[in-house]
From TrEMBL:
Organism per entry: Microvirga splendida
Composition bias type Polar residues, residue spans: 430-442
TM regions (residue ranges): 37-61, 73-92, 98-119, 131-153, 159-176, 196-215, 235-253, 265-285, 291-311, 323-345, 357-377
Alphabetized UniProt keyword annotations: Membrane, Transmembrane, Transmembrane helix
Cross-referenced Pfam families: MFS_1 (PF07690)
Coiled coil: none
Keyword flag Phosphoprotein: no
Name of this protein: MFS transporter
Domain of life: Bacteria
Region annotation (Disordered) ranges: 399-442
Transferase is among the record's keywords: no
Amino acid sequence: MNSSLALIWTITAATTLLQAGNGLLQALMPLRMQAEGISVASIGVVAAAYGVGFSTGCFLAPSFIRHVGYIRAFASLAAVVSVLILAMTQAHSTLAWILLRGLTGVTLACIFTVTDGWISARATSSHRGRILSIYMICTKVALMLSPLGISFGDIRTDGLFMAVSALMTLSLLPIAATTTKEPNAPQGVRIEVRKLFATAPSAVVGAFVVGLVNGPVVAITPVFGVSIGLSQDQAAALLFALQAGSLAMQWPLGWLSDRADRRYVIAGLALGASLVSLLILWASAQNASLLILWSFAAWGGLALCIYSVCVAHACDIVEPGEIVSTVGTLLFSWATGVTVGPLLGALAMEVLGPQGLFIYAALASLGLAVFIVMRIAKVQRPPAKGGFADIAPTSSASAGLAPRAEIGPEDPQQPYLPGLEGAAEAPDQNGRSPATRVETSP
């Protein structure tokens, strides 16, 4: 176990620092744009640009890593994203924000490919669950706590952006100091939406709707909070609540998902997210700040966990050799939703006011629940046989969060992106199949 941890401590430390910066950026960017007078609709377009960039980066990353290797890829990409964050201090137009956010999407997608692929390759089968738990806890806690750092600076000055850039730059140190051999280069992956939809329509539609809903909510939550009268610190705390709820619900939902037709879990989560969206609307109308915070935690525990169940459901159905393609296809479906969702969510806020965001979320989530119930009525499936995959949005436009994949029978949260070597592992001796996780970013 100790030798296995020695192989991944550097990438774990690097990713923790990176996610600390990424989490702070999630809260900072929308608040900064709002303070500069940029409309909610334009903030939605910026969030959509991140989705486009992230999607692009996912497909560019494998060839880039093959060309320069994992260590050089991480070092160069972290340097680039650090410069992009500094450039945001000089962004004073919507076009500039769109360009910079799209480029950060490309670079962060490539970085997450590096980190997830490294972990996936280094975690041994005997210790994978424990090793990946440590990795995920470190990065998840960093992502969860860092938005609270918004209280240590003024969003109208450049200090917080410099802090984000510093964290991104510091992530280079563990990688530069590593003495372990880097993993083998990743291979490519085919995207087959039509084929997977014919096999597992609930998974494809679920991944797409997750992007439609989670993307705008995570991206625009700080603006929503300020718009309903919360302070900037309280608005940033809503992101903390989303991630905390997601983390708390992963294992209970994983246990439940492994003991039933996963589509029941997807439908239940979607319906729950719809109902909690209505609760958030009611709490915001009552100015009940504490109830709003708890409602966001509940929303995160429901909505942010849907994608992982969708991936696990698809991996239960497809052949082991099709796992990589399945993961890539679901990632593409999610990214498409993340690109479109912020535009729709921002439009809803423009037309209906701040509450429009969660009216939109409630309707979209309810639509997914209805679709899944119709599929269950049409096609009956036996209880799941595979393990549950964790997904954690690490970004706002997402993050987003940032999608990532996870392989392994009981891997609590093994990150892994399509196209990385080792993704297409066969089921273990208990018949459990690989699965996937997604993370996003603002």
